[in-house]
Specification:
The complex is a heterodimer of chains A (401) and B (588). Chain A has 401 residues and is of the alpha/beta class. Chain A is 44% helix and 13% strand. Chain A has 14 helices and 11 strands. In chain B, a hairpin with a 4-residue loop joins strand 1 and strand 2. Helix content of chain B is 74%, strand content 1%. Chain B is globular and about 65 Å long.
């Protein structure tokens, strides 16, 4: 009897949990039913062949399993898609929009969120969302410090890494100071992508974090901090670095991918990437030679997450949810993290997976050029989103004349 | 003077009543209206869509008062002076040098065996898309490019590529050269079309019999007749060179980039308020282009005035006439550079890994071809369908307009509709990026985005001006007496139009069809914006891939993109020769 009384609340609690779970799963059933036969127009950057291949594979899977058709709309800059959605909003198109799901993060997300261009919170509907490692991967909750608020679905992790060819250089720099002396001894072999390119701005932020005397100010909005005081060391540094850079700092690579190519050509000795497995992937596809390796700076490098999001007027909302959920599945995430496929780190928590699922991740060969999670070191959080624009403006004013 | 205006007014009233009453049931009269209707709407809306935000009105992002703020910000932008500088240096010098080179080559080489060789190479020269060419040229002239690889490390001693600014140089020289290599073939094509209307053989014959050196005959007799027919194409080259984006992204300076690139960047900025500055920038670029077109026309007149006395100085020889070898050299340079660029694209498409200083890839593989080809088929066919439909529709509209013009001038009617046809040139003058946002909004409002109809329509907006441009002058210079004779003989004006005029003009018509087709193939943003992502063409695939940079994949796509216009240009050049192989006099 005593036992029963003791167990009763547990039982009630459990049945509660069960019914909540059931409610969620029956909601999801409905979504899956509605999704059947829908065509999802997934808009995203289409500049990488391995990524395009991966998306095609994912599309084939959801077609087979859930009868959802996925069309990958490849663009050169996601800003073009933001423009299109903006035009639809201007034209009063509240339903039947042309974009069902888009690949996004950072400033573009913050803009779309602020201008109500996204669906009201929806990611909590996805069964796989609970597998995301929100405890250790804070950037899945805060995209460039902007709260995600269930308005985008985490897809992958990114961390700034540097690539070099061990046949070209024996020792690589370990911080911004050493990068400068490296540039001095190897004139013309160091550069960074042209801001406001995403990779270029990240380089500026990395340098700022390493060089500024007062790092704490960076987590606050720019307006609340002393911009000049905080950034003076950065500009001093760049003033010293530029004369020793590629083309003496008069010209910059357009983006991270171009740096990778210039590294292959030997024009540059150091390239940078946001994908820790970029080098291994490049080796796997034959784009890069076997001798390419990866390194990070001693004090850590900037990391963030990238997401998929559903615009406010998506035509195939349910189909988009089903596809987003599939992208989050352990199976799809494991395949994505394979350097031979793409090499994009997972957003999932290994602790939340069962043994079989964990196995899928652990059985993947990581490639010679990929650093272990320990070697990747500390992940530095992005400065407050407002710093991006302020840094870009300051940079343009100084160097783009 | 006053009487002239009065007369013209009377004529206009007469022509208006004439059209309204429709005494003369001329079905052609609808062509200008149809053409303008297809254009007026998108152009006006496109302009409004650009000018409103330029003056601070874009309610969707919370900007709803009219101010000059975006202009102030634009003018205060640190990159503006430098951007304008590289736009002007590259745009103006590319136009002038291209014009000079194409006339120089024609004057020296026309009628030689080498000239027919040049004509044969025009198809591939013109067909190679601008971006693909810039890419191929980068593979050639970059510090790690093929030219240096050929001699490294043997002759140069370079184990690593030198740090030279042979591409993306701050003065935009590499960008200028790239544009010249692309525009000289275009102007040569236009020259060939125009020369068909001049009796070159007899002009040269008369000039030579008077003792003029052949080059002098060209300078004195041919070019003064030829240039007016080249004016519009030259102005189009000018407008294009001042507003080019894709080439500048690949090979242009980056600190700062040309103005059009800056505008493009502002319109894609995550900070939506930058679109206001983008719109102001687009308006500024529009003004710059219009201004320099004006300047160009004034300079033309001044040059004509200044050189007129020299035309009559009676000199039979000139030292310049001895410089045939320079013209040959120029033509050879253009042809071999383009050829090498294509060769390097092909080489990259089959390379496994290809590092400096290897002159050739160590391992070859067809992997990217076999993998990409099945994926390319659909985008390839879509691009072909859109290109053919828009080019054919444009040809029909332009032929209708030009015939109507002829009809009106015969009836001595000064038609308003015919003059307003000039507005179809507007899309050439406005930077695409600023103009498209307006069109996109309208198409979205009408719920016709993502349809074949709207896609072909928006392609027409860009294709039609080029078809008009490439056809109008030649068409207007056609000797109408042939048709008159034919009409007398056959009794049917329709019959004589199709059986005589169209047949005689097959060559220029096919040329402009090919140009229009190539213009359609080149459209990336319009396809994406108005196609709403529903249409993947070979170009949308290539451009999006080019924003990453696995050269091997890009090379495969770029070569396939090249193939489409190449086929159509080849057809335009070979078909007339084949059709009219038994008509001696149609061979110029």
């Amino acid at each position: 009897m005593l036992k029963t009384i003791f167990l009763l609340p547990v039982f009630i609690f459990c049945s509660f949990l069960f019914s909540a779970d059931q409610a969620q799963s029956s909601d999801w059933e409905k979504i899956m039913q509605k999704a059947r036969g829908q065509t999802v127009y997934f808009n995203g950057w289409g500049g990488s062949d391995p990524i395009n291949d991966y998306i095609r594979w994912a599309g084939d899977q959801v077609k087979k399993r859930y009868q959802v058709e996925v069309k990958h709309v490849k663009v050169s800059d996601i800003g073009e898609v933001v423009s299109r959605i903006l035009a639809e909003k201007s034209g009063g198109r509240e339903h039947g929009g042309s974009v069902d799901l888009m690949w996004i993060n950072g400033e573009n997300f913050s803009t779309m969120k602020r201008n109500n261009l996204l669906q009201p919170p929806y990611s909590q509907l996805l069964p796989h969302l609970s597998l995301v490692d929100t405890e250790n991967k804070k950037s899945t909750l805060y995209d460039f410090t902007v709260p995600v608020d269930n308005m985008e679905v985490p897809w992958g992790m990114a961390q700034l890494v540097f690539l070099y060819d061990k046949e070209h250089i024996k020792t690589h720099p370990k911080n911004m100071g050493e990068l400068l002396s490296f540039a001095e001894t190897h004139p013309g072999r160091v550069s960074y992508p042209l801001p406001p390119n995403f990779h270029g701005t990240t380089f500026l932020k990395q340098a700022l974090i390493e060089l500024t005397p007062d790092r704490k100010q960076l987590s606050r909005p720019v307006s609340e901090s002393d911009f000049d005081l905080v950034t003076t060391p950065l500009w001093d540094y760049l003033d010293k670095l530029h004369p020793h850079m590629w083309r003496k700092g008069t010209s910059f690579p357009a983006n991270g991918s171009e740096m990778k190519q210039l590294l292959n050509d030997g024009e540059l000795f150091i390239a940078l990437s946001f994908n820790p497995a970029e080098a291994s992937n490049g080796i796997a596809t034959g784009e890069l030679p076997e001798s390419i390796r990866t390194y990070v700076h001693d004090s850590g490098t900037i990391g963030n997450s990238h997401f998929v999001a559903i615009p406010f007027n998506a035509s195939a909302r349910e189909g988009a949810l089903v596809f987003a959920n599939f992208l989050l599945s352990p199976e799809a995430q494991a395949r994505k993290s394979d350097p031979a496929i793409w090499g994009d780190p997972t957003v999932l928590s290994m602790d939340k997976l069962n043994r079989e699922e964990k196995n899928m991740f652990q059985s993947i060969p990581q490639g010679v050029a990929t650093l272990s999670p320990e070697a990747l070191g500390t992940v530095l959080l992005e400065p407050h989103a407002s710093w991006v624009e302020a840094l870009e403006k300051g940079w343009l004013k100084r160097y783009s004349r | 003077m006053g009487r002239g205006i009065g007369e013209r007014l009377a004529q206009k009233i007469q022509s208006l009543t004439f059209l309204m009453v429709g005494q003369n049931r001329n079905p052609l009269q609808f062509f200008p209206y149809l053409t303008i209707a297809a254009f007026l709407a998108p152009i006006i809306l496109g302009l409004v869509g650009t000018w409103l935000p330029a003056f601070g009105y874009l309610p969707i992002i919370g900007a709803d008062d009219f101010t000059l703020q975006s202009y102030r910000e634009l003018l205060a932008h640190p990159s503006l002076p430098g951007a304008l500088r590289s736009t002007l240096i590259s745009g103006l010098s590319a136009t002038l040098i291209s014009l000079f080179l194409s006339l120089w080559i024609t004057a020296h080489l026309y009628g030689t065996a080498f000239w027919s060789f040049i004509q044969r190479t025009l198809a591939p020269l013109l067909a190679i898309p601008h971006a693909a060419f810039a890419l191929g040229l980068t593979f050639l002239i970059a510090p790690s490019g093929w030219l240096i690889r050929l001699f490294s490390p043997g002759l140069t001693g370079f184990v690593f590529p030198p740090d030279w600014a042979t591409t993306r140089d701050p003065l935009a020289i590499s960008l200028t050269i790239t544009m010249i290599f692309k525009e000289v073939p275009f102007l040569l094509l236009m020259t060939i079309g125009a020369l068909n209307q001049l009796d070159i053989k007899r002009t040269v014959w008369v000039g030579r019999s008077l003792g003029f050196q052949k080059f002098k005959v060209w300078m004195r007799l041919v070019i003064p007749q030829l240039y007016p027919m080249l004016r519009l194409p030259v102005l189009a080259v000018l407008a294009y060179s001042l507003s080019v984006v894709d080439l500048a992204l690949i090979i242009g300076p980056s600190l700062p980039p040309p103005l059009a690139v800056l505008i493009d960047r502002w319109f894609n900025d995550p900070d939506l308020s930058m679109r206001l500055i983008g719109a102001a920038g687009a308006t500024l670029l529009f003004i710059v282009i219009t201004f320099f077109i004006g300047v160009f026309i004034v300079v033309e007149h001044v040059v004509a005035m200044l050189t007129r006395p020299r035309l009559l100085n009676g000199l039979r020889h000139s030292w310049w006439g001895q410089m045939k070898s320079t013209a040959t050299l120029a033509a050879v340079t253009v042809i071999t550079t383009t050829g090498l660029s294509l060769f390097l694209l092909s080489l990259w498409s089959v390379a496994k890994n290809w590092r400096f200083p290897d002159a050739l890839p160590r391992h070859l593989s067809l992997f990217y071809w076999t993998k990409s080809l099945p994926l390319i088929v659909e985008p390839f066919l879509t691009a072909a369908a859109v290109g053919l439909s828009s080019a054919v529709i444009a040809i029909i509209l332009v032929l209708g307009c030009l015939e109507n013009e002829l009809h009106l001038s015969r009836s001595k009617i000064d038609s308003i509709s015919q003059k307003s046809i000039l507005i179809i040139y507007l899309p050439l003058l406005i930077p695409q990026i600023g103009f498209l946002f307006g069109i996109q909004t309208i198409v979205t409002n009408l719920h016709i985005e993502g349809s074949w109809f709207s896609l072909i329509w928006v392609h027409l907006v860009f294709v039609l001006p080029y078809i008009f441009l490439t056809l109008a002058t030649t068409y207007r210079n056609y000797d109408q007496r042939y048709v008159q004779v034919a009409t007398i003989l056959s009794g049917s004006s329709l019959h004589s139009f199709f059986r005589v005029k169209v047949v005689m003009l097959t060559k220029p018509i096919l040329f402009s069809l090919a140009v229009g087709f190539a213009v359609s193939i080149a459209q990336y943003l319009p396809t994406l914006y108005v196609g709403a992502g529903r249409f993947a063409t070979i170009t949308t695939e290539t451009v999006s891939l080019a924003s990453g940079s696995d050269r091997r994949v890009i090379a495969v796509y770029a070569l396939c993109q090249f193939l489409l216009p190449f086929l159509v240009y080849s057809l335009a050049i070979w078909l007339p020769a084949l059709l009219f192989r038994n008509r001696q006099l149609m061979k110029n």
